[in-house]
Amino acid sequence: MNIHVIEPLAVSDEKMKEMSRTLEEAGHRIMFFPDRKTDISTIVERSHGADVVVIANMPFPAEAVAALPDMKLLAVAFTGLDHVAMDACRDHGVAVCNASGYSTISVSELTLALIIDVLRNVTRLDPVTRAGGTKDGLVGFDLAGKTVGIIGLGAIGTYTARLLKAFGCRLLSPDRGKSVPADLEIELCSMEELLKNSDIVTLHCPLNENTRGLIGTAELEMMKESAVLINCARGPVVDETALAEALKGGKIAGAGVDVYTVEPPLKPESSPLLDLENAVLTPHVAFATREAFIRRADIVVDNILGWATGHPKKIKG
Fold first, then answer.
1. Catalytic residue of the set 46, 204, 234, 296
2. pLDDT per residue over 130-152, tens digit each?
3. Active site residue 83
4. pTM, whole model, 2 decimals?
C-alpha cells in the first residue's frame, strides 16, 4: 500500500524514521513531502498513486478528491474535519479518519493560559513593566470562585472542566446530551442561563451547521459586562465582528481568541480584533505542542494500520 504524507507533521526526523519503519515493517511504502503547498494541482500531484493520503490541516477540496481515483483513505492528522470535503469523500468511497485526542491536553492548557492572561492582564503588563511602569490600572481578578460556562463537553471541554475544577471554579454547561463525570459537579442549564450567569464562557464545540455563528450579538448582550469569552474551538463559531463591537462597547470585559474566521497570519482587514487591548490573541496555536505532534503522528500510524488490517479506528467516512 502506498502512503503519501503530503504536508509536514512537525515532528523530528527521528520520529519520521520511526513512522517509516513501523509502516514498512507492515509491508507498506511511505513518502514524505517536506513543505506545505495548498494549491489543488500540487495536492493532486503529491497524492497521485497513493492508496492513503496523510494531511494535517491543509484544505482538501472536492476537486482533489475527484481527481484521485486510487485514494482509499484520507488520514487526517488533526481533530477537526471542516477543512476536508467530506461529502466528496463519501461520494467517491474514500474513508476519512482523524487524530482526535492528540491535542486534548494542549488545547485545554492554552484555554487556561488565555483565561488567566485576560483576568490578570499578563500580556498588557509585559510592555508596561519593560517601560518602567507599575500595576496601576491593571490590577486583575482571581480565577478561583468564578463561574465558568463550558460550551462543548467533548474530550477537550471535559478536560478543561477538570482543570477549572482544580482552580475552584463553578462549572455550567448546556450539553445535556453528554455523560458528565459526576466528580466535576457540572451544572446543566440552558444556553441563556449559562450566558447570563457565567464570569467566563469558553467554547469547545465543533464547527457545523448548528454551531456556526453560535455566539453573536444577541448572545454577547446576554453576558455580564464583567465577563470574558474564550474561543479555542473554531473561528466561525463566533461572529467576530459582533465580538469586536462588544469588546469596544464594554458589553463584555475581555476575550481570549486562538481561532478566527480567516486563518492566521491576520491582517487588519481580515480581523477586527487586532487593535483591541482587551483581547488576547494567539495564532491558532492551541493544538501545537511538541508532545501533541508526537501523539498525532502515533495516532495516524495506528489509524492506517488499523484500517489496513480491517480494524479501523476513528473512521469518519
1. 234
2. 999 999 999 999 999 999 999 99
3. no
4. 0.91
